[in-house]
Amino acid sequence: MATIDVFDMGNNKIGSMDLSDTVFGAEIKEHLIHEAIRVQLTNRRAGTVAVKNRSQVAGSGKKPFKQKGTGQARQGCSRAPQYPGGGVAFGPQQKEYNLSMNKKAHKSAMKSVLSFLFKENKLTVLKSWELGKISTRGFVDVLNAFSLQKTLVVIDEQNQMLELSARNVKDVKVLKAEGLNVYDMMNYKNVVFTESAVRKVEGALQS
User: Fold this and answer.
1) Which residues lie closer than 8 Å to 52 by C-beta, 6 or more apart?
2) Are 72 and 9 found together in one domain?
3) Is the whole model's pTM more than 0.85, yes or no?
4) Neighbouring C-beta atoms of residue 43, cutoff 10 Å
5) Cα separation of 40 and 100, whole Å?
6) What are phi and psi of 155, to 5 degrees?
7) Quick one: which H or E segment has residue 12?
8) CB-CB neighbours of 178 under 10 Å
9) Residue 1 pLDDT > 90, yes or no?
10) Which residue among 55, 99, 151, 169 is least crowded, i.e. fewest CB within 10 A of its CB?
11) Which residue range is the domain that position 153 belongs to?
12) Nearest in space to 139 (alpha carbons), one of 166, 159, 157, 158
């Protein structure tokens, strides 16, 4: 069974903890990581780009002029694409993006990322995040103590002081354990867990 050191906020080692081999020592399946990221990013797309066709623009359906005798080409209505303010022909229409991934494959992708981060020594475990007050400087000092840049912080429950302290820090994101996802873990160089958040993630992925 793999183990990882546990630190306080001053980068002092205060113990270690065992990690589940099924979660942090799993086979790294790159194709599932890629699929999970593709699904997540695709489903973020709003798909709201659209233009009005001739049936949607405002205007009368009356013929602009009679069919014959004018010397002009016949016209059906002023909402046709060739008229100013008319509908657009073959323009983009609203689209829904709704990709999915089965639970087993998604869990495997999560385990693959966690195993990769552990293997690459990009995981840091803190006993807890207890700043005592809202302080951006205090939060940055903790990151500097570990020489961390572009960091994802994972906590087990809502911590308003931590979240408010971190919200203006560039390249930092705070997530609760239940919101942990493949894209964010791969998007940040380092991931910092609280000890209780590690147990929460292990419990979710082993069930």
Assistant:
1) 87, 88, 91
2) no
3) no
4) 14
5) 9
6) -120, 160
7) none
8) 11
9) no
10) 55
11) 2-45+99-206
12) 166
- Same domain membership, residue 159 and residue 188: yes
- 185: CB partners within 8 A, 6+ apart: 113, 114, 117, 152, 191
Q: What is the pLDDT of residues 53-100, one digit of tens each?
A: 998 999 888 898 999 999 999 998 989 999 998 999 999 999 888 899
Same structural domain for residues 58 and 160? no
Q: In the chain, pLDDT over 90 holds for what percent of residues? A: 80
What is the count of structural domains for the chain?
2
Please check whether residues 156 and 70 belong to one and the same domain: no
Closest CA to 43 of 95, 94, 97, 93: 97
CA proximity to 25, closest of 8, 43, 3: 3
Cα torsion 128, 130, 136, 140: sign: negative
115/59 same-domain check: no
The C-alpha atoms of residue 79 and residue 176 are separated, in whole angstroms, by 52
Give the CATH number for residue 169: 3.40.1370.10
In whole angstroms, what is the distance from residue 32 CA to residue 12 CA? 36
Residues 7 and 74 in one domain: no
Contact between 105 and 35 under an 8 Å Cβ cutoff? The reply is yes
